[in-house]
Design brief:
The longest helix is centred in the C-terminal third of the chain and has 4 residues. This protein is mostly beta strands. The chain is 4% helix and 47% strand. It has a single domain, classed as N-terminal domain of TfIIb (Single Sheet), CATH 2.20.25. The strands form 2 sheets. A 6-stranded antiparallel sheet has the order 4-5-6-7-8-9, with no helix packed on it. The protein has a 3-stranded antiparallel sheet with strand order 1-2-3, with no helix packed on it. InterPro entries: Znf_FLYWCH. One of its GO terms (molecular function) is zinc ion binding. Keywords: Metal-binding, Zinc, Zinc-finger.
Length: 113
């Protein structure tokens, strides 16, 4: 009689590189997280300095304000990461990591390569 031993699959772990990029550690290997340039699903990433960003449709948004609404509920206002350099007025409003308002009027092309 043959007995097959199946190893338990490793659980992927999300880690960050020295520059703050998100990586996946699986079975001892590191994988970089690649996203589509025009992905319509918001992806939470970190800047090189470790600040939280949202990547959405090729644009990056940085956190402007964070308000505690009680019961562990946070309302956060995000603005386009090129706001200071280019004066872009695009913004996001999230409540508990869910987008509730989205002003997508950018004055520039997507910045993600």
């Amino acid at each position: 009689m043959l007995t097959y031993y199946h190893s338990v699959p490793d659980i992927p772990t999300f880690i960050h590189s020295r520059r703050g990029n998100q990586l996946i550690l699986l079975a001892g290997y590191k994988y970089s997280v690649q996203s589509s340039k025009y992905c319509d699903t918001p992806i939470f990433i970190h800047s090189r300095r470790g600040n939280q960003l949202i990547l959405l449709a090729g644009y990056k948004y940085s956190l402007k304000t964070r308000n505690n609404c009680g019961n562990n509920t946070f309302k956060m206002r995000w603005r386009c990461s090129t706001h200071n350099a280019r004066g872009c007025r695009a913004t996001l409003l999230t409540v508990d990591d869910n987008i509730v308002r989205y002003n997508q009027k950018h004055n520039h092309d997507p910045v993600v390569k």
